[in-house]
Amino acid sequence: MKLQKFFAWIAVAIGVIYFFVPLIGTLEFSLRMRRDVYSFDAYRSVFSDLGFLTAFGFSMLMALLTIIFGMLLVVPTAYWVRLRLPQIRPFVEFVTLMPLVIPAIVIVFGYLRLYNSSSILPLTGYNQTTNLLLVCSYIVLSLPYMYRSVDTAMRTIDVGTLTEAAESLGAKWTTIMFKCIFPNVMSGVLSGAFITLAIVMGEFTMASLLNRPAFGPYMQLIGANKAYEPSALAIIALAVTWLSMGLLQLVSRFSKSAPIKA
């Protein structure tokens, strides 16, 4: 038994070293912009760059729009499948898993083929419509995580009873959805939202090929032309991801102790 614990701790130690040593090295390198002195010059250089503020703000806006429209798509779909169409549940789950199977570069090349400036629907011909196409792309990428988060939260409530009770009081479909269903699956929605935020902030392929000023292409551009700033950007991106995961854990913890609304 002691030998098993010993090997278990060895495995944990190897995992910690494998994960944290590169991060520590990246952090240490990002502080060496000034010769022989640790400083935050690389971070000051990044935060003072207008391109960083533009790219970060653009990606945050895209993440917000992706979360809102993804939520409006996924929650009614999961609700309707669970309440009225349980027979198509395997098909819906299969469709939501497709973004994990099809590479992002394949999806974006399909978009460029279908929505180029010479097509019937030339979405790539204008900045605003290209942004809309990028949001749709991000919704597709986040669909497996958002759908499963919402579906898992929906399993914890009695959808049929809530719907019947609301209908008996004269509630319309919109009232049922936004006042009965959404509050009870908010933990799942927020879980999917934080994962979506992490995906959007780190995504490169779609934003690059659609020629959008997102955070992922900006990181690649800086990495190709500067030395210390890319390490600082990597730490910043990691901090955003960890913040999202920390908020996810916090929401999950509070949702377990929160009473179910009737």
Automatic annotation (TrEMBL):
Protein name listed in UniProt: ABC transporter permease
Keywords, alphabetical: Cell inner membrane, Cell membrane, Membrane, Transmembrane, Transmembrane helix, Transport
PROSITE patterns: ABC_TM1 (PS50928)
Domain of life (superkingdom): Bacteria
Transmembrane segments: 7-31, 51-79, 91-112, 132-147, 185-210, 230-251
InterPro entries reported for this sequence: MetI-like (IPR000515), MetI-like_sf (IPR035906)
Lipid bilayer topology: Multi-pass membrane protein
Gene3D superfamilies hit by this protein: MetI-like
Localization of this protein: Cell inner membrane; Cell membrane
Classification of source organism: Bacteria, Pseudomonadati, Pseudomonadota, Alphaproteobacteria, Hyphomicrobiales
